[in-house]
Each structure stands twice: as C-alpha cells, then as structure tokens.
Amino acid sequence: MWPGHDTSNSIRAWVTPDGTVISPEQNLGVLFAEAGVWARPSKQRLDELAYLLSEDIIWAYGSQSKDVMAAPLGGAVTPAEFKLAADGSGTFRFCHNDHGGALTGGGGAPPDVYWQNVVVLTADHKATLSKKELPSAQN
To answer: Is residue 29 within 8 Å of residue 127, measured between CB atoms?
Structure first.
C-alpha cells in the first residue's frame, strides 16, 4: 500500500481473514503464532522459522534491506535466533542490512546500515519488536 499517491513510502503488512492487521509495530504475535513458533508439536524447527520470520519482518520494513547471516562488524552481527523458555516466553534476534539510506555529499551507492532487531516474546503469544542501529565498521 502507499499513502495517498506517494509511492516512495510503501506500507507493508499482513491481514488475517478476520481483518487483524499485522505489522512490525502491531499484532506481531499473530505472525509468530501463525508461523507455528508456539505450536506443540512444532511444525518446523525454530532455526528454519528464524530465517523465514526475519525475512518476513524485513520485507515489512519496505526498504532494500536484507537479512545478515555473516559477522561483518567484528561479531556484532549474528544469525537469526530464537531463545525460548518452556512457557514460550523469550527472544527472537536477527540483524539486517539496510541499503535504503540517503547519501550525503554525492553519488555512489547508499551506505550500508546494520540493525539489531530484538523481538520479546511472551508466554501469552504476544510479541514486541525493537531495533537499534549497530555501530558501523568505520566508527
């Protein structure tokens, strides 16, 4: 979707058949539940779900981002990973590289910006995402 006629700012989200809108900012627990994170027995291994869910969330950001599996910033970047307690609470962490940043002072490719994403998961199937920019290799 695009707000108004401005196609430079896309809005990406999912909608369930009952009309629930899921985005990184709202109802994110529904995405994790639908993917089977809390399913017993599990439909898929958590490491497989980690990759798929990181790609889904990155897609929702609507930029030229991509999942980062390597460690380009001295080990600060780690592969997507779940850490869950027996009650289903825990965290889901992944990193992404955003190529969509604006350039300052000239042409060339946009600078790479790396982000650490942390989703806090609760036993009652809620999820809250936060992200922070990782220091660049030049800093």
So the answer is: yes
Residue where the block lists tokens 């936060």: 130
**Whole-prediction pTM:** 0.79
Q: What does the domain layout of the chain look like in residue ranges? A: 15-133
Most confident of 25-39, 61-75, 103-117: 25-39
- Preceding amide of 41 cis, omega within 30: yes
What values do phi and psi take at 5, rounded to 5? -105, 10
Q: How many CB atoms lie within 10 A of CB 90?
A: 16
Environment class of 138 (CB within 10 Å of its CB; exposed 0-12, middle 13-18, buried 19+) = exposed
Residue 30 pLDDT grade (very low, low, confident, very high; cuts 50, 70, 90): very high
Contact 36, 44 (CB under 8 A): yes
In this structure, what token pair is assigned to residue 1? 């979707």
67 to 21, 47, 85, 131: CA distances (angstroms)? 23, 14, 25, 14
